[in-house]
Structures are given as structure tokens and as C-alpha cells.
Amino acid sequence: MSYLERGNETILAQQAERESNARTYPRHLPLAIREARGVTVTDMDGDEYYDCLAGAGTLALGHNHPRVVEAMERTLNADRPLHTLDITTPAKERFVDSLFDSLPSAFADSAKIQFCSPAGTDAVEAALKLVKTATGNRSVLGFQGAYHGMTNGALSLMGDTDAKEPISGLMSDVHHLPYPSDYRCPFGVGGEEGHRIASRYVENLLDDPESGITEPAGMILEPVQGEAGAVPAPDEWLREMRRITRERDVPLIVDEIQAGLGRTGEMYAFEHADIAPDVVTLSKAVGGGLPLAVVVYDESLDVWEPGAHAGTFRGNQLAMAAGEATIDYVLEHDLDDRAAEVGARLRESLESTADRFDAVGDVRGRGLMLGVEFVDEDADWRGPGPHAPDGDFAEAVQAECFERGLIVELGGRGSATARFLPPLILSEGQADDVAAIFEEAVEAVANGRRSTREVTA
């Protein structure tokens, strides 16, 4: 029997038997995907789902978009090279043209690009090496709640200690600073006062000769923290981080790996604050669904010697063709504006759900990068924010969504935030369907009408 003739249960059982215990998504989303198109996927049993995970935000145009498929087929049919290390090709140069066209001219006009190994975490590693080489310094400023990948250097920047604890002795010199949040403000005040305190804290820390922080090689931040549960930074705070770093000659690295290419309602999330960073890390959507990662940075930092940073798979030509097609389509069809409009519609519906159920503590995000945090108002809680995060409730909602044909991922503190990262081509009608399914799922859990399912561990 071929795999296409087998059902979900059979394939999931085989995956559990043969694949690493580190696998994650199948534990909560028990399906084997047979086919996918646009914003939907169909499993081996013929059930269809709205995909609001979309490769963790990778699929900006959804599954098998005709423009992307055509670009890949054209490359394959013309016997173009598929793997070229860092030797250039017309496909590579076209990709760089499109990528630079998508960036603000104030940044792109003096930018250089470094192609990395294909994952976003590889771009972060390259960025760290870049600023350390350029400045001669070692320490890095990161932020609480941050997620920048799973390699050693990237893990050292993570705000969550659980994932990095086994290799903590190998971590580089990272200082985690408070990240502003209206709902879970690290200073307990939130709003404008909260982010002003956060800014002053950082500035005072850097200027205090007894802070214990050595001269930093750089600061890295996410304009919208993704894995932390779609937490957007206030624009004024971002402008302050840019001022503070510029005045002290500290390179500012902006991680746009998940937020970049239109998802937040601007082409890049840092554009909401009208700032120009020194370094931008990119992956996910810029590869059109295929593995590709780059670092784009100000030419003043380009002091690497030849061969100082390499990677076998940095010449993925098929990804460059798919990426060029994706970037051009996003630009031509103003999908950043579409993400803002459809995202606002979806968020309004999610906020309506929040008004109905006390278990919803916060709805947040930007564009089509949204999060809904669940809380337990009766639990003892001494951390930031008014209530304890309720990961059990969130997991139950995720399961109910799945049963009703909706795929969402969890993240944030205590994995208590349902995260929405749908393709940017999501229509208003589809957004309404997603919101309706989600509300039904929340209602089912809140009223104790949870369905049961068996998940292959």
C-alpha cells in the first residue's frame, strides 16, 4: 500500500515510531497532510483545515500559490543550477533586486547582504558574528520573552530559560532587558508609562559604570515578539531603542524573521516606528516557502574577511526564484495593506470573543500576526500581569479548533496564547470563518463541552 493510500492514524503511528522525540507539532496537531492549496490543507482522511500556522508564518502567499509554483517550474524546466554556494546567478541577482526594493530606501541604499545557511537561526548567528567582528566586543543585549532560534548562540538570546537550560554553560555573554508589554508589563504599570520606564532602564543600565555590562557588540530585538505570543513593541519605545543604540555606537539588529514581508501591516515591522536599523535578519517568507535566510546590514559593518562566514546551502537557487516571486507579488498586490485590513477585521472578532469569556485575558498583535492569551483568574499569580496564564485552557481550545477544522499554534508565557499566522491572502470571508470556529472552540471549553481525541505521542 502506498503512503497516499494510508490514513492519518497509520502514518502518525509510523512517525512516532521512527522520528525524534524532539518533534513538536504532531503532538497537538495530529494530521498527515495529503494536499494543500491557499489557506487550507487536507489530511489523509480527507478532512480540510484552515491553516493559521502556515509554516510558522513562512507561507506568505499560502500553499502552492500559482505565482510561486510557476517560478519554481520555470527554474527546473530551464536546467538552471539549483545549488551554487555563493557563486552568483541571474536568479540570485533578481532576488536581491526584489528584496532591496521591498526594504525602505533609507536602509537599502547603503546595505550589504549575506546569504546564510537556510534557517532563520542561521541568520541570527551570522548577525551576531557580524556585529562582534565589526565592534570587537562580545556581549549582546537581548530582551525578555525573545525568540531568535534554536542554535547555541540564538538560544542564548532567548528569554525563556527552559529550552536553553541543558546548554547554559556554553552560552555567550547576553544581557536580557525588559520588553514592554501593556498586559504583562515588567514594571507593573503598562501603557505609555511602562514603555518609558523600560527605555530609561536600558539607557541608565548602559551608562552605569557599575552595571556589570561590558561594552556591547549589539542589541537584537523583535518589533513584534512572535513565540512570546504576538507581543508588539510600542513605536515610541522602538524609536528610543534606536536613539539609545545610535548615540552609543551599538549596532541595532532587528529580527524580522517572522514579522517581515507584510505580515504586520507594513512591509517590515520596524517601519511602524519609522526607524532604520543597522542589521535585519530575514528568513521564512522571503524564501517563498523554501529554506532561505539572509542578513541585510549597513555597509559600515562589512569588515569581514573573505570566507569569514559561509554555509553549504546558502546558494539555494530554487528558494531564490520562489522568494523573488513572493516578494514581487506582495509588493504588486499591496499585501501589507491587506494584512492590516483583514487583520483588523479578524482582531475585532477575536476581541468580541474576549468580551464574552473571562478566560480570555488579552488580544494583541499587528496585522495578521495576532495572539489571544488565556488566563485563570482564580489561580495564585505573582508574576507580571493581572492573572496567571492558563496553558491547559489554551491547549483545550487548540484541540477544539482542530476538531472544527482550524489549525492554530500556541506560544507565549505558559504556552497560553493561541497564535494566528495565516497567509496574507486570507480573505475577509475566510477571516470570519476562522473567528467563528475559534469562538465556538472557546465556548466549548468554557462550558465544559470539550471533545476528546487520541493524539499519537
TrEMBL record:
Its cofactor is pyridoxal 5'-phosphate. Pfam families: Aminotran_3. SUPFAM superfamilies: PLP-dependent transferases. One of its GO terms (molecular function) is diaminobutyrate-2-oxoglutarate transaminase activity. This is Diaminobutyrate--2-oxoglutarate transaminase. Its EC number is 2.6.1.76. The keyword Metal-binding does not apply. Keywords: Aminotransferase, Pyridoxal phosphate, Transferase. NCBIfam families: dat, PRK06938.1. Belongs to the class-III pyridoxal-phosphate-dependent aminotransferase family.
